[in-house]
Amino acid sequence: MHKPFLTTRKGALFAEDCMSLLKDMQSSFVDCVFADPPFNLGKDYKNGYHDKMSEFSYLCWCEDWIKECCRILKPGGAIFIYATPELAIKFGNILNELVTFRHWIAMSMKGTYSRGKKLYPAHYALLYYTRNQPKTFNRVRVPVPTCRHCGKEVKDYGGHRDKLNPLGLNLTDFWEDTSPNRHQKFKVRPGVNELKLVIPERAILISTNENDIVFDPFGGGGSTFQAAELNNRYWIGTELYDSKHIQRRFEERFPLSLGKKPEFDIRGLFKQDEDHKNAVLRRCTRESLSAGTR
Ligand SMILES: C[S@@+](CC[C@H](N)C(=O)[O-])C[C@H]1O[C@@H](n2cnc3c(N)ncnc32)[C@H](O)[C@@H]1O
Fold it and tell me: Does residue 135 sit within a domain?
């Protein structure tokens, strides 16, 4: 029986291995998966996680969780995976067999350095796939970019500035207004490996509506869960190594929601276990027998 480490009105976090939760989850249950896995680079996550296994074992493990994440997606649901371009190519091979490609979103990465005989890496990839045609696609708009020194707009839009939608520009598949690299100065919490909120938030806004369900297997500092709670989506997550940062995030930002019973049925999340199925069967048989004797 899986017991949540914390719950809110909108979500439930399980402090356990994502695979152990995933294998017990119902198929076709969630509307969106957002996954930002460890990259097997030997990084110190400062939470006990050892980010280094053989490449073969790492890719086999990725294949397992990616397949499970696709299985739990509803038809038309979306899966986003954040990765280095090298890993994204490999993840794409797995995803292409199961779901439909939508976008390779490039997120510009500043202040990097080249390693060996390579170009300067200047972006991370956010893969976006859906289970067949997307059931939800919301256009996200972003503010017209301005110079951070003088505040003036940086482009003139070829003289058609007045034709721009007053709500902002259409989001493209090139995000240069985020800071995907996890430099200390961009982190909400020092020492915690987390994305800027806007990254999972955009993925959620594009692919879900209010009260849809978002799943993140690699909770980290909890940015996906915050984005879901903030935007009125249900969320489910796992974090194997240390969930206290997520707990602190919710204590600070959602104190009234933390500790409340989720508004969705957590039991409905899991495949029915044999005992539960047998109990339901016994009840149904009893009911139909007693109906027959009336
Ligand atoms: C890159 S971080 C995710 C950061 C998160 N997206 C955020 O913005 O806060 C990856 C996380 O996955 C966790 N992790 C590694 N293996 C896991 C597993 N098998 N099940 C669940 N979590 C795992 C690590 O402890 C780490 O916190």
Answer: yes
> What are the Cα distances from residue 10, in Å, to 150, 201, 211, 217?
41, 15, 8, 16
CATH code of residue 284:
3.40.50.150
Domains identified in the chain, total number: 1
146 C-alpha vs ligand 1 centroid, how far in Å?
34
Q: Is the CB of 5 under 6 A from ligand 1?
A: no
Nearest atom of ligand 1 to the alpha carbon of 47: 25
Domain of 85? 6-293
3-state secondary structure of 33: strand
Q: How far is it, in rounded angstroms, from Cα 147 to Cα 156?
A: 13
State how far the Cα of 236 lies from the Cα of 254, in Å rounded to an integer: 16
In angstroms, what is the span from residue 181 Cα to ligand 1's centroid?
16
Min mean pLDDT across 49-53, 169-173, 238-242, 283-287 is at 283-287
What's the whole-model pTM score?
A: 0.89
**Biggest CA pair distance of the chain:** 84
- Of 32, 218, 245, best ligand 1 pocket probe by most atoms within 8 Å of the beta carbon: 218
What are the tokens at 106? 């490039």
Query: Is the CB–ligand 1 distance for residue 223 below 6 Å?
Result: yes
In-domain check, residue 1: no
Query: Is 87 domain-assigned?
Result: yes
- Ligand 1 centroid to Cα of residue 16, in Å, is 11
Domain presence at residue 240: yes
The reply to whether ligand 1 has any atom less than 6 angstroms from the CB of 78 is: no
Query: With bands split at pLDDT 50, 70 and 90, how would you rate the model's confidence at 234?
Result: very high
